[in-house]
Amino acid sequence: MDLAWTPEEQAFREEVRTFVRASLPTDISAKVLSHRRVVKDDYVRWQKILNDKGWLGGHWPKEFGGGGWSPVQVHIFDEECAAAGAPRLIPFGLNMVAPVIMQYGSPWQNSHYLPRILSSEDWWCQGYSEPGSGSDLASLKMRAVRQGDHYIASGQKTWTTLAQYADMIFCLVRTDSTVKKQEGISFLLIDMHAPGVTVRPLYLYDEEHEVNEVFFDDVKVPVENLVGEEGKGWTYAKFLLGHERTGITGVGASKRELVLLKETVAAQTKNGAPLTADPVFRQKMAQVEIDLLALELTLLRVLSNRSRPGPEASILKIKGTEVQQALSELMMEALGPGAAPFSRQAIDEGGAAAPFAPEYAAPLAARYFNWRKTSIYGGSNEIQRNIIAQMVLGL
Amino acid sequence: MDFSLTEEQQLLRDSIARFVQNEYSFEARKAIVASPTGWSAKVWGQFAEMGLLGVAFAESHGGFGGSAVDVMVVMQELGRGIVVEPYLSTVVLGGGLVALAGTESQRQAVLPGIARGERRVALAFGEPHSRFDLNDVATQARRSGTEYVLSGRKAVVLHGAAADILIVAARTAGTQRDAGGITLFLVDRASRGVTVHDYRTIDGLRAADVALEGVRLGADAILGPLDGGLPLLEHAVDLGAAALCAEAVGVMESLNALTLDYLKTRQQFGQPIGRFQVLQHRAVDMMMHAEQVKSIACLAAARADSTDAAERRRAVSAAKSLVGRSGRFVAKEATQLHGGMGVTLDLPAAHYSKRLTMIDFWLGDSDWHLDRFAAA
Fold it and tell me: I want to staple B319 with a disulfide (CB 3.0 to 4.6 A). Which of A59, A84, A184, B296 is the partner?
């Protein structure tokens, strides 16, 4: 056991740090580090910079045009990008549909879609949840009926993150309603620009347009857009969710938020002294910091033991989101009454939410409310506990 | 970044696991706890034969040249059997402090004897008023010619009665809570003026209150620098705290396994109670605590030998704080999930729960370490 970074890992970290510092546009990092809203152009600019360097698919296997990084390298990369204030890499194409296509997709799907993910030509979104199918995902109703060399897809998806930007959606659809619910599901890739697709915004807690409802009204989908076999979609869906959950851990971003939290807290006063000196607040921060430290080590322990996430990814999802939420809560709490002023404009474009308020305060309460989503999405933390109970504990 | 154990460490782990499995049954442990001394000389001799007692000492001191990571491996396995022998007090705390602070002749006088199973050491640092603060020392060591005369009271000395040698923290200068002015003394337990009051602890171990009344010692009894004992004592206690974290991993994993087993076999409402989601989720939370504790115990072990005191304190305090909090949580949940059986002495689970809870009360509790972590 040696919990120090190897010289190779250290060198890789230096290489990433140097590149990110030199290449990340400062207008983007300024937004991220001040918790302002990041828009499509910001995400895409950063993706293109990384792709030019060959790092956007650093975690992809080499045979698919990736960098073949080890899981520990992926973690180091994530940590350095987050620390510098890079926007998160939107996972739907890069980390979710791509591994499914690599594992189960046709040669045509591989050669057509994977390069377009890396080049940012296609923005992907995820068509899993439906109004009647949240935690009970396998009960989904959206149908796809085979007609010649097309499927005709009808139904509705919801909670579709950033669908307003998307060119493609991967959908779980019902192709057979006569068999067990898990066995009648197929995995279909649908063009968001096809006739019959409608996107309607849902506004979250913090008034952000982040998620959508997506309606499919007899949308024609070529059969070559079926991934793998008809009726095997549930298997592919579970494979994908394992990847989603490891990504949600968010250790790199949480470490950055801890630094920002400490800065925020140092700027507050209580009884004429910095809030950092308040024993009650200080201990709350220390507790989260310790939880995060343990989580980072648990993540590294999982990563160094296995290359592919198993059911233990559920532990990482639960603990990761708990830490994220605790950090966002302390950040808001640090402001005291200064957390209350709200201005959409300040969150979108910068500036303070009230005349006497500092700029950094404006997004923090909104962010707290927004981050309540983390324990609900990606399979709620209760569903994760069901998974661990069944798959790990054998209950 | 490497979490794997070496081949030697795996062999060490497996040999202790076999020992616990074959020779340290629940019934055997019960008999040892109920014996007059509360620990087994026979088991101690077996530990010496297995090489456990010198695991972290240098080869020139009769040991195997191991590290805190080797101690972690040992303590995890001892935790699985809730072993009550004075390993922590003698090998980790006492031996650790002599190895850190002793002159070569002091090391030669103590460490090989520990490794052979012939000598036991206890660390007498706490006092009735001091809680977990190592600097809060009222015990006096007054200079008298070439000698020192010790007077004071040491409270809850882990395995004090099992020891031949007590390492006493006493004040040679300064006032009661000064960091400077604390000196460590090697005291033969049989010295005139030393009275050891042995008693049981709630978690099956032994501790002692030690009265020191005009104990006369030569200057050669001083361990480490005069007036400068505190940093060394702190380091030894950090080694001990890291070892307790490792022990907690073993206790917690065993307790979780026992609880899981109970959930799968206990029938109510016509089915195993583990079918109920409300209990499943609690079992999952217990398991997540164990995973986090396992991770952070690795960090404590990896940093416990560090001579960078700030780095060592930060890692050990992060670990001991989390272990304390999680240990008490898991112990309470295990008790509750066992229902009435959880509060009887008939099931091993109750004994594991008690030990896991009380680990938080040795060498700095969760709050004390959280405070030290936050202050760093």
Answer: B296
d(C-alpha B333, C-alpha B252), whole Å:
11
Cα separation of B212 and B220, whole Å? 18
pLDDT at res. A306: 64
For B231-283, write each residue's pLDDT tens digit: 999 999 999 999 999 999 999 999 999 999 999 999 999 999 999 999 999 99
Side-chain-side CA neighbours of residue B30 (13 Å) = 9
Q: What is the pTM of this model?
A: 0.94
Chain B segment 311-340 residues within 8 A of A by beta carbon are 318, 321-322, 325
Its ipTM equals: 0.92
**Are residues B1 and A285, on separate chains, in Cβ contact within 8 Å?**
no
Catalytic: A80?
A: no
Q: Which of A5, A301, A386 sits opposite B295 (nearest CB)?
A: A301
Mean pLDDT for the stretch of residues A84-98: 96
What does the pLDDT average to over B5-10?
96
CB-based contact B374 A290, cutoff 8 Å:
no
Q: Cβ of A290 and B285 within 8 Å?
A: no
User: Which of A79, A208, A210, A244 does the annotation list as catalytic?
Assistant: A244
- Predicted confidence (pLDDT) per residue in A301-310, tens digit: 988 876 556 7
Reported confidence tier of residue A313, pLDDT bands at 50, 70, 90: confident
Residue B233 has what pLDDT? 98
| pLDDT tens per residue across span A234-275 | 999 988 887 766 677 899 999 999 999 999 999 999 999 999
